[in-house]
C-alpha cells in the first residue's frame, strides 16, 4: 500500500477519455470526494508515475493497448524495464493506464468491477 497525505482521492486521467468520464460520474453518484488531474494538460511528475508503478506494477500501469503505444518505434519498446516504462509514461502520459486513483492508503489503476469495489472504501 502507498500512503498519501491528503484524504481526498486524486484521479489521474484524460478529460477526453470515456473511461475517465465514466469513472468521474460514478464517483459523483457514490458521493466520493475527488480531485481530477488531466495528465496531458496538468502534467504528472516522473516521481508520481514511479510511485504508481511501484503500487500497481509497471506492467499494469503501462497501457500497451493505447494508440500511443502502437505509435512508438520498436527501439523505444525493446528492452522494457520498470525505469524505461516510467520514463516512457512520463514522456508520453497517454501511455498511463487510465484512470489512476491515488488515495490515502492505496493506488488503483483502471476502472472495472474490482476497482469499483475497492474505491467504495474512499467514502
pLDDT < 50 stretches: 1-5
What's the level 1 CATH class?
A: Alpha Beta
Tell me the series of helices and strands, N- to C-terminal: EHEHHHHHEEH
The proportion of residues in beta strands is 5-15%
Report the structural category.
Answer: alpha+beta
Helix content: 40-55%
Report the CATH topology name.
Answer: Glutaredoxin
Number of strands: 4
State the domain count.
Answer: 1
Distance between the termini: 18 Å
Shape: globular
The Cα radius of gyration reads 14 Å
Tell me about the biggest sheet? 4 strands, mixed
In the CATH hierarchy, the architecture is: 3-Layer(aba) Sandwich
Looking across the biggest beta sheet, what order are the strands in? Answer: 2-1-3-4
Task: Write down the overall mean pLDDT.
Answer: 92
Query: What is the helix tally?
Result: 7
The CATH superfamily title:
Glutaredoxin
Describe the protein in words:
The protein starts with 8 loop residues before the first strand and ends with a helix. With 123 residues, it is an alpha+beta fold. It contains 7 helices and 4 strands; from the N terminus they run E-H-E-H-H-H-H-H-E-E-H. It has a single domain (9-122), classed as Glutaredoxin (3-Layer(aba) Sandwich). The model is unreliable at 1-5 (pLDDT under 50). It has helices at 18-30, 46-56, 58-61, 67-71, 74-77, 82-91, 113-119; strands at 9-13, 34-38, 100-102, 107-109. Helix 1 links the parallel strand 1 (9-13) and strand 2 (34-38).
